Amino acid sequence: MADTLSEAEVLGLFEECGALLRGHFRLTSGLHSDVYFEKAQVLQYPRNVERLCAELARRYAGERVQVVVGPTVPGIIIAHETARALGCRAIFAEREGDRRVLRRGFRVEPGERALVVDDVLTTGGSVRDVLDLVLATGADVRGVGVLVNRSGGVDLGVRLEALATVAANAYPPSECPLCASGVPLVKPGSSPI
After folding, report:
1. Which of these, 137, 65, 125, lies nearest to 95 by C-alpha position?
2. Do 118 and 66 form a contact (C-beta atoms < 8 A)?
3. If you average pLDDT over every residue of the chain, what do you get?
4. b/e map of 82-111 (b: 16 or more CB within 10 Å)?
5. Helices 7-16 + 46-59 axis angle, to 10
6. Where are the alpha helices (H) located in 74-176, listed in sequence order?
7. What CA–CA distance (Å, rounded) separates 82 from 178?
8. 3-state helix, strand, coil in the chain (%, to 5)
9. Strand 113-121 to strand 140-149: parallel, antiparallel, or no bridges (unpaired)?
10. Which of 36, 119, 189, 193 could connect to 74 by a Cys-Cys bridge, CB 3.0–4.6 Å?
């Protein structure tokens, strides 16, 4: 396994790539925030992905993980590279309506040691969807690994490892001081506003 990667180094990678943004953003959850992580800017560089996921893998090296599961799009990349570092298989859960499902013949067996991964934890919605799916299979979930935890303390009921923890404000739109101040709202990422 690779050498450890500190929280400062993780955040440094995000900053160097222009992935740590400050302003007024609408998050996927619908909340508004003054900080946004444009993960694609970091994940476009395979060496960054390798370093970040090697650190996630290092933190779970003693758990004998057999399968790493992530949500679609950035989670696929993170699951694949983390599984490569752990020497196990990687699968992903796709959205179907308001839940996540396994397709393409993917399965998680009862008792199989599983790790759930994702990019940035804010409300825990995407991670919880995947976690619930994996738990429902009867798997032995060893934990959740994320690149950045900006949740302020979401409890997923399992071990959580974050490469970096960032205090970032998140507001319901009706309570957003940035809206009240007239700061223009931006919806970065891939989903429309």
Report:
1. 125
2. no
3. 93
4. bbbbbebbbbbbeeeeeebebeeeeebeee
5. 160
6. 74-86, 125-136
7. 37
8. 35, 30, 35
9. parallel
10. 119
CA distance 48 to 191: 24
- Strands (DSSP E) along the chain, which ranges? 20-26, 32-37, 67-71, 89-96, 99-101, 113-121, 140-149, 160-165, 170-171
- What is the phi/psi pair of residue 12, to 5°? -60, -40
* Angle, alpha carbons 94-40-45 (nearest 5°): 115
Cα 77 to Cα 70: distance, rounded to the nearest angstrom: 8
Tokens of 1: 């396994």
Query: Which amino acid belongs to residue 30?
Result: G
Q: Is the pLDDT of residue 152 over 90?
A: no
Query: Once rounded to an integer, what is the mean pLDDT over residues 1-6?
Result: 76
DSSP class of 175: G
Do the bridges between strand 99-101 and strand 89-96 make them parallel or antiparallel, or are there none, so unpaired?
antiparallel
CATH classification for the domain delimited by 7-180, as one of 2.60.120.260, 3.30.565.10, 1.10.1740.10, 3.40.50.2020: 3.40.50.2020
Edge-to-edge strand list for the sheet holding 89-96: 99-101, 89-96, 67-71, 113-121, 140-149, 160-165
Burial 140-161 (b: 16+ CB within 10 A, else e): bbbbbbbbbbbbeebebeeebb
pLDDT(28) > 90: no
